[in-house]
Specification:
By secondary structure, this protein is mostly beta strands. 13% of the residues lie in helices and 38% in strands. It has one domain. It has a five-stranded antiparallel sheet with strand order 3-2-1-11-12, with no helix packed on it. Strands 7-10-9-8 form a four-stranded antiparallel sheet, with no helix packed on it. A three-stranded antiparallel sheet has the order 4-5-6, with no helix packed on it. The longest helix is centred in the first third of the chain and has 22 residues. The two termini are 42 Å apart.
Length: 194
């Protein structure tokens, strides 16, 4: 190969790289939040963005964001579970839920009737007992199971109000469409560590 040919090849490679980068447009961004609704048929989910700062200090950032899931199923992890439980503060005896009807957070002070800690696995769906007027919820983060007295308006809310939705992280260039989506709750990140 001649020096001229090598220079032309290098120049063409640089030009191709520059065109490819220009075609990519702006850099993408990443958002993480808790899923409050998920419709697999419509390929849409709605989430509450997580705030910056220490985890558990805030229920999230309103308003909720609705996005389309990735078109390529290989760019999406396990399907997320939705729920309205945003924060369980057992120290201050307070639960924060996303109230769909009011489209805002609702803080509920509670008096525990029963508390169990170091519960490693969820017993399943939240238990709403309309006869005894109690709700039992599980917090994976705190590994706690709490039963508290509930008013009729709390018992009238959908059962998934009392379940924490999965945390997802997604990459996008268009804020309404995820290019990649990872279910943080259902992904064991320790297996990917080198």
């Amino acid at each position: 190969m001649t020096t001229t040919f090598k220079m032309r090849t290098a120049a063409l490679a640089c030009a191709a790289a520059a065109l490819a980068m220009a075609g990519c447009g702006k850099q993408g961004q990443v958002v993480q939040g808790r899923v409050i609704t998920y419709d697999p048929q419509a390929r849409q989910l709605t989430l509450i963005r997580e705030p910056a700062g220490p985890a558990g200090s805030s229920p999230g950032i309103l308003p909720p964001i609705t996005i389309s899931t990735p078109e390529d199923p290989d760019e999406m992890g396990p399907a997320p579970a939705a729920g309205g439980l945003m924060l369980l503060d057992s120290k201050n005896r307070r639960i924060v839920i996303y109230d769909r009807a009011a489209q805002s957070f609702r803080s509920v002070a509670y008096t525990p009737l029963e508390e169990r800690y170091n519960v490693t696995k969820s017993p399943g769906r939240p238990a709403l007992d309309r006869v005894r007027k109690t709700i039992t919820i599980y917090s994976a983060k705190d590994r706690s199971l709490i039963t508290f007295a509930a008013s009729d308006d709390l018992l009238a809310m959908p059962a998934d109000t009392w379940r924490a939705g999965d945390v997802v992280r997604y990459y996008y260039k268009d804020p309404a469409r995820a290019l990649r989506l990872m279910n943080v709750t259902k992904t064991d990140l320790s297996k990917s560590a080198g």
